[in-house]
Write a structure and sequence with these properties.
Layout lengths: L1 H19 L5 E5 L3 E5 L3 E10 L5 E9 L5 E4 L1 H6 L3 E2 L4 E11 L6 E12 L6 E13 L8 H26 L1
């Protein structure tokens, strides 16, 4: 009798443990966990969130821990672009948040943690995926314009040169 009672308690403990640890499986992987910028610059963390579980996974929120007064986080990208849920085996690839440095941010490395919250229903706010990140700030290097800016400036200068050459040819005639 005592053996049956112990076996029953053991079986019940196993069931209770497996029910209590049931959770959604998700993996968050940033394209790059470390991004660099100059003072006053902005970096965008993007990557892929994959539902590795067997049930739909609702994406109900996110959270950023970055305790530096000179850095500002904008996670509205996630709320605008990410789907409301991921199907079993599904994934989302895109932007999650931006970090902007103030004009007075000192050079250095600033570490933080990003967490996606959700679960198996639209009312769940369990931590389902977490990824650490680092923003490297160099206050001695000015922001470098994007390649598109160089292309736009180069195109404008080329057009001005062509117009000037035509004007010179007209005056010679």
């Amino acid at each position: 009798m005592q053996k049956r009672l112990l076996a029953g308690i053991f079986s019940l403990a196993i069931v209770a443990t497996s029910v209590g640890t049931a959770h959604a499986d998700a993996i968050l992987t940033f394209t790059s966990t470390t991004l660099s910028t100059a003072t006053g610059g902005t970096v965008e963390f993007d990557g892929t969130l994959t539902n590795t579980g067997e049930t739909d996974l609702y994406l109900n929120g996110d959270g950023v821990i970055l305790n530096y007064a000179d850095l500002t986080v904008d996670d509205s990208i996630f709320y605008v672009d990410a789907p409301l849920f991921l199907s079993a085996g599904g994934s989302y690839t895109g932007a999650f948040f931006d970090v902007t440095t103030d004009a007075v941010t000192l050079s250095g490395s600033y570490s933080g943690t990003y967490t996606i919250q959700g679960g198996t229903d639209s009312d769940s706010f369990d931590d389902i995926a977490t990824e650490d990140f680092t923003v490297n700030v160099d206050s001695n290097v000015p922001d470098v314009p994007e390649p598109n800016s160089f292309l736009l400036i180069g195109t404008g200068m080329t057009i001005l040169a062509v117009l000037r050459l035509r004007q010179i040819e007209i005056l010679r005639e």
